[in-house]
Amino acid sequence: MKKTPFLTLEKAREIIAQIPTPFHIYDEAGIRANARALKAAFSWNPGFKEYFAVKATPNPYILKILKEEGCGCDCASYTELLLAEAVGNTGHDVMFSSNVTPELDMRKARDMGAYINLDDATYVDFLASLGPVPETVCLRYNPGGSFSLGNTIMDMPRDAKYGMTEDQMAGAINRLMKLGARHFGIHAFLASNTTTNEYYPELASRLFRLAVRLRNATGAHIAFINLSGGIGVDYRPEQPKCDIRVIGEGVRQRYEQILTPQGMDDVAIFTELGRFMLAPYGHLISTVLHQKHIYREYIGLDACAANLMRPAMYGAYHHITVLGKEDAILDHVYDVTGGLCENNDKFAIERSLPQIDIGDIVAIHDTGAHGFAMGYNYNGKLRSAEVLLKEDGSFQLIRRAETPKDYFATFDCTEFRFGE
Ligand SMILES: *Cc1c(COP(=O)(O)O)cnc(C)c1O
Q1: Mean pLDDT over residues 73-82, rounded?
Q2: Do 96 and 202 share a structural domain?
């Protein structure tokens, strides 16, 4: 399907007059509509809740919009917990799915009354050492082996550092019950950026069966199943798009086949989606600074991999639209690059695009999740601004761009003097 940006050249120019490129921009209407579609797809489950993976887009304005749509926060660090708290998410509106967890972080999650998702059986004593254990505790599962859907190997849980074995889970539950815990959650994240509607139903059926076995082995009450993240988006125009209604229906069928006959029909379904919630509703907006013609044709942008790392890190495809040239024929082939002193700083390699001129504005698609968030300061490049395009068409700066002063802020500025 053709990928269309959610803002026009005219709107981009209006924003750029106040906020220079590069910046990430988010589409409030799209975020809200998608969150509502997710909620509707799981409305058959009265306890359903999405805990947005804060790491995907750690901006309190975004977290607040999602909170208004009924979403909590999934956090993995002390700072992410502070972000959740700042938008009024505490208690069971927070899921703490961390690993290699420092004591400070665990203590904060405990003090906030968050659901704590233990990555390992050894964390039971770690948690107990901080005080009485919570009434409800979640455990992260690693089935080992490979994880396949049909004939396709999706991932290799046996090589993943996360979670614990089934035996370790049963042991952890028994020990936690002795320590006073009464309800349990089960969590697993077995494949990332899946674009099939079968991933969640397959994961759900494995976790539902596991829940039945653990309940039978320990007598514990399983209160929720956390399907975590992993629903992907169509980064490429020719890719299929997940249908959340079909996914929700697939999970419902497995629930009724596996849990209901076991009398386990009070189990709530939780999700920790990041990419699915935000990726399509963000663009990185950038201006063409330079063009060069050597062995290939190069387009140089004012954004670089420090603003969007996925192409450099994973070779990920991000679609590019030249604003105002949406319908022009793609009769040029360009490498579209940033200015880092790293040859992997390319947003696109040998991409068919319309003729590009210096000063053109480009929208790099699907940067709303794991975009700004993975930014860094290599080469002294500064983090960009973040802008919210509101439902009424107005816009708001929701994070200013960094300045050199921010970059130097962690040095002792009495010993060294930096220019502006
Ligand atoms: C990263 C992560 C998520 C979100 O993953 P997406 O692919 O963005 O949906 C959810 N839960 C945990 C524990 C994660 O590490």
Answers
A1: 98
A2: yes
CA 83 remoteness from chain centre: 15
Q: How many Cα atoms are found within 13 Å in the side-chain-facing hemisphere of 341?
A: 4
Q: What is the pLDDT of residues 29-42, one digit of tens each?
A: 999 999 999 999 99
CATH number for the domain including 332? 2.40.37.10
Report field, pTM of the whole predicted structure over 0.90: yes
Q: What is the pLDDT of residues 197-245, one digit of tens each?
A: 999 999 999 999 999 999 999 999 999 999 999 999 999 999 999 999 9
For residue 18, give the DSSP letter. T
- Output the CA 226–ligand 1 centroid distance in Å: 11
CATH number of the domain at 141, please: 3.20.20.10
Of the residues 231, 264, 279, which one is the last residue of a structural domain?
279
* 307 shares a domain with 253: no
Q: Which residues contact 5 (CB under 8 A, 6 or more apart)?
A: 283, 321, 323, 326, 363, 365
Ligand 1 contacts (CB < 6 A) are 53, 55-56, 74, 97, 189, 192-193, 228-230, 272-276, 369
Domain count, the chain: 2
Task: Give the residue numbers spanning the domain of 184.
Answer: 28-279
